[in-house]
Each structure stands twice: as structure tokens, then as C-alpha cells.
Description:
With 142 residues, the protein is an alpha/beta fold. It has one domain (8-137): 2,3-Dihydroxybiphenyl 1,2-Dioxygenase, domain 1 (Roll), CATH 3.10.180. Helices cover 15% and strands 29% of the residues. Strands 1-4-3-2 form a 4-stranded mixed sheet, with helices on one face. The protein has a 4-stranded mixed sheet with strand order 5-8-7-6, covered by helices on one side. The relative contact order is 0.17. Mean pLDDT is 81; it is low at 55-70.
Amino acid sequence: xxxxxxxxxxxxxxxxxxxxxxxxxxxxAIAREYGVGTVFYAGQSLIxxxxxxxxxRSDPGDVDGGKQRSDPGEAFPGALWLQVRDxxxxxxxxxxxxxPIAREAKPEPWGLHELHxxxxxxxxxxxxxxxxxxxxxxxxxx
Length: 142
């Protein structure tokens, strides 16, 4: 199997609210709009907000087994990891746009610097800065 591309797909409870969050508050650039959805650039990936299919989520491939989330704050089984150059500058930029910070930027025991923001449907966005000395920046090929 060859994977040609990938993206994260969200079916938000309130499409307009999430569109405003990702476009205006977070500041992601739009890659494509298709009437009932918007695709954003997110580094080497894409984030798609689908304004369709949210109410009838009964696809067996859904991570929640087809269960419709009734509470936008309900636990989400994952998060969106977004690498940035400077997590502290990112925090200042988001705060200047009025984005609530769920957890302020700080160094983690595993060596990364992380900032947490929560989207309108309760998805955690983890903004990550990889310091120059972190193993993720080293060439591990022998």
C-alpha cells in the first residue's frame, strides 16, 4: 500500500463556529473550499472541516463506534499536534486574537515545549516547539 496524502477530518457540531476558530482565531490559510466544507493548510498536512455528515455519524469506521457526541466538551480520544517555530510567540499571537489558552506554553519533561488550546468541539490542539537539542532534530540514520 502506498499512502499518497493525508489530512485530519473534523465534523464539528457547529461548522460556522469551527470555521471562524480555525480560520480567524488560529489563523490557518485556506487550501480549498467546497461549499459544505473547508480545507486548511497545517504545515505538511491538511485539516478539513466538513459541514456535512455530522448528524448521521454511524460509519463503522468512526472512532466512537457511531455514537453521536452530545456534549462538545466530551472527552476526545486524541489531539492535533501542530509543530511551530516558537511556541511562546504562538501563544502571544493567539492571545492577541482572543483565543483562550487551555494550558500555557512550557517545557515538558520529554524535552518539547508545548501549548494547549481547545477547539469549539473539545479537540485539543497541541502547539509544539522542538528545541535545537531535542532528539527529533538529530539524524538517527546509521
